[in-house]
């Protein structure tokens, strides 16, 4: 009887020792579904970072075991997944998501359980307002919306129509910030229309937009719809350029939109044409590892894992509260997407770039500082 | 005024697509009294068949030519007809004598199966549909915009509507279909092979779904494995609105829903209904019509089918 007990004790000790060699970090991403390219890109970036951290000795001597779960781009999934990551996998931190609506679902759960969460690319303001355990490594919508408004004013456009995706917190946030900045600086919003992600026919909205005779149309949606919107806008004879945000950043945008997108503009986190060594080394490593080109979401995924590792190193602990404090103190961390400083609202402050679409490629136009 | 006419054109072309999907729904229901919830997913498969066949067909029949457009359409319709017959043989036939509810739930199962198999086989992310036809705005209409694809959708919808009516009303097979829908036992006593007629009905319905899928993909060139869910639902509503089982009714219902949606969006400021409530308005109209006319707009009360 005693022998059996000892055996059990040994076994459980053994497995405990084994578990201590690795530390679990949870990731939830839209690997499939409507925003699949976001999820896949950010996941690839995160994977690259984790592999580098592990090759360099891991987190405080322990290898990172990245537990990735797919939320299928569906509302309702992130909450379930993040609960599972926290209660079953006992992850020390959570990385995710790109879409703000998904991060907003997961954030309260991470906050309740005091597990630090870093969103790579959710730019809606509300995400980090959920609580003091929620961080992000990207800029926020008010900034991004204001950047495009600033850009529109600098081009001399006075009349703008706005076409918002009413289902996405991200899109509404960008549109609000844009309207506020643009009207405060003398511009006029001539039409304010909205659609729902998943729609394919936008002719009714666009016909109404056209009747406002805008100088440009601000469409802060996701790439899946924007490609179709651009095509239908050009067919309806709208010649004004379309403007957007980082939700446009996907190869699929040009696949669907094609020539209709030529000469349109959007704001983004970084440009692959940035000649800085940090960006170029990252792009080369990414290409080697995944045989495809990195985009902004991959860079943000990479930065989210790196910022976490940096915080754990400074905290010298895996404890949720200590990692949280270290994350909050992040200052001038040299990320791929620029120098990252976490402000008192747990947002990253850094410049945005404006890109244009020329011959089906994204071209750098200018960089706009906070 | 131009804006209003443009919105009517937009609504008509959107409605024509719903009508096209609704035709297949309503025909299968009219014959078999069975709502094939997998219809929207067969429509998705049709669009993907076009996606995979288009490059090689366009090499043979010319880029953006009418000929390759027709060949792609026919090929996708043939493949989906086969798919429909296989689904009927494997899934619905063994359940034919079970309660209606069993078959209905099985249809939902088939629908989920096709959606998930589609995500696995075709990949889950949206794909850009190739330009099969040269889809541009037709010149010489002033400020109004009518595109080639809009005209095409309308023409094909009308053509298929007429063809379907002809098959059901004038051919021998159509007579067998109608006989079957009245009384399957009596029909088989009269020498009708029920298995063949039901298989044909499913094949025809699936071919119609494929045609709708290809035309939708031409008009809105972004396809994904879940693209059939919402249009399928709207088409079902259109079929019910027009009187399910009634072929012209499905077309009328589709056009009505398309028009209502478009006008709600286009004049959301004037009527103070947010444009994203367009589906809610369309469905509210459905409820109202069914309250006052439960058989739908063109549905006859005396159980006459098709």
Short description:
The complex is a heterodimer of chains A (370) and B (306). Chain A has helices at 2-20, 36-55, 77-87, 100-112, 126-129, 141-154, 169-184, 203-211, 223-235, 251-257, 277-290, 296-315, 320-328; strands spanning 22-29, 63-70, 94-95, 117-119, 134-136, 159-165, 188-195, 216-218, 242-244, 265-268, 333-335, 338-342, 348-349, 352-358, 361-368.
Descriptive notes:
The complex is a heterodimer of chains A (370) and B (306). Chain A is of the alpha/beta class and 370 residues long. Chain A has helices at 2-20, 36-55, 77-87, 100-112, 126-129, 141-154, 169-184, 203-211, 223-235, 251-257, 277-290, 296-315, 320-328, and strands at residues 22-29, 63-70, 94-95, 117-119, 134-136, 159-165, 188-195, 216-218, 242-244, 265-268, 333-335, 338-342, 348-349, 352-358, 361-368. In chain A, the strands form three sheets. In chain A, strands 7-6-8-9-10-14-15 form a seven-stranded mixed sheet, sandwiched between helices. A five-stranded parallel sheet of chain A has the order 2-1-3-4-5, with helices on both faces. In chain A, strands 11-12-13 form a three-stranded antiparallel sheet, with helices on one face. Chain B has one domain: Orthogonal Bundle (ABC transporter involved in vitamin B12 uptake, BtuC). Chain B is 73% helix and 1% strand. Chain B has a two-stranded antiparallel sheet with strand order 1-2. In chain B, helix 1 (2-32) runs parallel beside helix 5 (148-170). The longest helix of chain B has 31 residues, at 2-32. Chains A and B meet through strand 7, helix 8, helix 9 and helix 10 of A and helix 1, strand 1 and helix 10 of B.
């Amino acid at each position: 009887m005693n022998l059996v007990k000892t055996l059990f004790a040994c076994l459980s000790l053994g497995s405990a020792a084994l578990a201590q060699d690795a530390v679990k970090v949870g990731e939830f991403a839209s690997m499939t579904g409507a925003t699949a390219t976001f999820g896949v890109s950010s996941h690839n970036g995160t994977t690259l970072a984790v592999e580098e951290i592990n090759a360099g000795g891991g987190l405080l001597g322990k290898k990172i075991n990245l537990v990735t779960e797919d939320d299928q781009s569906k509302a309702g999934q992130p909450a379930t997944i993040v609960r599972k990551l926290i209660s079953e996998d006992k992850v020390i931190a959570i990385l995710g998501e790109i879409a703000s609506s998904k991060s907003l679902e997961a954030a309260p759960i991470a906050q309740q359980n005091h597990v630090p969460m870093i969103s790579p690319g959710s730019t809606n303001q509300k995400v980090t307002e959920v609580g003091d355990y929620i961080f992000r490594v990207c800029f926020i919508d008010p900034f991004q919306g204001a950047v495009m408004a600033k850009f529109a004013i600098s081009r001399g456009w006075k009349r703008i129509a706005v076409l918002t995706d009413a289902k996405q917190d991200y899109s509404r946030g960008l549109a609000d910030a844009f309207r506020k900045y643009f009207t405060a600086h003398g511009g006029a919003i001539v039409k304010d229309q909205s659609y729902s992600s998943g729609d394919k026919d936008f002719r009714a909205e666009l016909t109404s937009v056209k009747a406002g005779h805008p100088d440009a149309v601000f469409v802060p949606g996701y790439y899946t719809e924007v490609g179709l919107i651009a095509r239908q806008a050009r067919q309806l004879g709208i010649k004004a350029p379309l403007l957007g945000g980082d939700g446009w950043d996907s190869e699929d945008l040009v696949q669907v939109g094609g020539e209709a997108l030529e000469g349109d503009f959007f704001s983004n986190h970084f440009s692959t044409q940035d000649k800085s060594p940090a960006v170029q080394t990252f792009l080369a490593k990414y290409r080697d590892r995944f045989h495809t080109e990195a985009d902004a979401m991959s860079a943000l995924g990479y930065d989210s894992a790196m910022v976490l590792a940096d915080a754990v190193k400074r905290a010298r602990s895996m404890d949720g509260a200590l990692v949280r404090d270290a994350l909050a103190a992040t200052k001038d961390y040299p990320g791929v997407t620029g120098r990252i400083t976490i402000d008192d609202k747990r947002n990253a402050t850094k410049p945005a770039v404006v890109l244009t679409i020329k011959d089906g490629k994204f071209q750098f136009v200018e960089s706009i500082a906070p | 005024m131009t804006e209003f006419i443009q919105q009517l054109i937009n609504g008509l072309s959107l409605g024509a697509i719903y009508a096209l999907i609704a035709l297949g729904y309503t025909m299968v229901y009219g014959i078999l009294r069975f709502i094939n919830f997998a219809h929207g997913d067969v429509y998705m498969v049709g669009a993907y068949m076009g996606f995979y066949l288009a490059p090689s067909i366009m090499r043979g029949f010319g880029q953006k030519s009418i000929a390759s457009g027709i060949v792609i359409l026919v090929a996708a319709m043939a493949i989906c007809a086969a798919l429909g017959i296989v689904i009927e043989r494997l899934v619905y036939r063994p359940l034919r004598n079970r309660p209606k509810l069993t078959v209905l739930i099985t249809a939902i199962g088939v629908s989920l199966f096709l959606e998930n198999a589609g995500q696995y086989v075709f990949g889950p992310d949206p794909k850009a549909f190739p330009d099969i036809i040269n889809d541009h705005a037709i010149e010489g209409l002033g400020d109004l915009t009518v595109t080639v694809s809009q005209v095409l959708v309308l023409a094909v919808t009308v053509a298929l509507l007429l063809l379907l009516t002809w098959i059901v009303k004038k051919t021998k097979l159509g007579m067998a279909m109608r006989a079957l829908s009245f009384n399957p036992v009596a029909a088989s006593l009269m020498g009708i092979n029920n298995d063949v007629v039901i298989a044909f009905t499913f094949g025809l319905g699936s071919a119609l779904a494929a045609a709708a899928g290809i035309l939708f993909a031409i008009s809105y060139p972004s396809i994904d494995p879940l693209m059939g869910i919402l249009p399928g639902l709207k088409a079902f509503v259109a079929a019910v609105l027009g009187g399910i089982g009634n072929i012209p009714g499905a077309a009328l219902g589709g056009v009505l829903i398309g028009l209502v949606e478009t006008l709600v969006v286009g004049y959301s400021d004037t009527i103070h209904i947010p444009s994203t409530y367009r589906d809610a308005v369309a469905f509210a109209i459905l409820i109202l019509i069914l309250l006052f006319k439960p058989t739908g707009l063109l549905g006859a009360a005396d159980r006459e089918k098709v």
